[in-house]
Structure formats: C-alpha cells, structure tokens
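Hello,

I think I submitted the calcium ion job twice by accident. Can you confirm which output corresponds to this input? Input:
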Amino acid sequence: MKILIVEDQQRLGLFLKQGMSEHTYTVSWVGTCSSARDALCETSYDAIVLDLGLPDGDGLDLLREWRKAGFNEPVLILSARDTVEDRIKGLDLGADDYLPKPFSLEELLARVRSLLRRHSTTKETVLEHRGIKLDLLGHTVHVNGKSIDLTSREFALLEIFMHNIGRILPRTLIAEKIWDAHYDVDTNLLDVYMSKLRGKFDTIPDQPLFKTFRGVGYQLL
Ligand code: CA
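Support: Only one job matched these inputs. Its output is below.
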C-alpha cells in the first residue's frame, strides 16, 4: 500500500515516514504543495496524509484542486487547526478524515487502516498466488496457511511482485518503488533483499518462486 505524506515539519515528516514504513507501507514524503502536486501526477497512492500549513500554500487548496481534478485518493488531514469549523471545512472540501495535532501514531495508523478498508471495495486487499496469501491491510503473509515473518521492506517487495504476477520487473522499477528514486541500482542491495525473500519461501515445492534475469530484473513465477 502506497502512502503520500505531505508535511513540511522535518522531524514530524521523518517520524511519520519511519513509523508508517515500519508498518509495511511504501511511503513517499514531500514537504511543499508543489512537490505534492508533482508526486500525485507521477503516480497514484492508496491514501494521502495531508498537513495544512505548508510553506508554499495551504493544504486545503491542494485538496480542493485534487478533488476538482478528479483525484479520489482518500485524504486524511493532519493539522494543528482543530476547531470544529476547521474540521468541517476540511471534510466539506473532500477530506475523508481529520486528525488534530498532536496525535498518536497508533491512532493515525488505525485511521489510515479504516480509510483503506472503506476505499478497498474496488481494490483487492488480499493477494493470492501459489499458496501465498498476502493481506495488505492486516500486514500478514501466509504460505499454505502457515504464517511467514517478513520485514517491512520484504513485505513491500513481495507486494510489488504480487501485483505483477508473471511480469519481468526491471531492477530500476523495483528500486524506485521500494527505495524512492534516488537508489543506486548498481549496488547489490536489491539482490540481497531478493535472496532473503527467496529464503523465506523455500518451502514452496516445484518450480522456484522467482526467476532472475541477470542485469535486467526479476519475475514472480
Ligand atoms: Ca505545517
């Protein structure tokens, strides 16, 4: 599940990014209205966490723009403005939820889960393939009914493959999704993760789970 965080406060942004990544979300974090606009034009997200006081504008204007343009990603406003009027304004403009600052990370995570659940009618949240069952909301993985322990990175990696069964995924594409765009694909970090992931699914008989295309990418068989 991909989350966009729009938050200009460095410490809070970093905290949110880390906290949500640890819960297996793939998180992009931006700090301005203009970079939020770019991020949403480049790719789609499963949910957006939106701060209102941003250095180059107001999050409410961003929200208004997005809804007008037809972006229907669920938006949770995270703001220090917490009067009833502020909340009504945000919700009327198309926000799906409103959490006042300061907040607890646990509550934010619970609200994001609830947003994702409500918006998941058209989107599959449990992916299944060759006995693997990946539950995107519950953050669990089972192989033939047996629970498998994955780190958040491994989970995100597997999720990309489960959305693209049989497709050869280029190394750059995988790296961009997992490590943002700045990851140097010459390093062997991706191969390390792939070998760890393979190791955790070595109980699956018959053909191997992943095929390596040397220098090109990987395919979930
Ligand atoms: Ca702010």
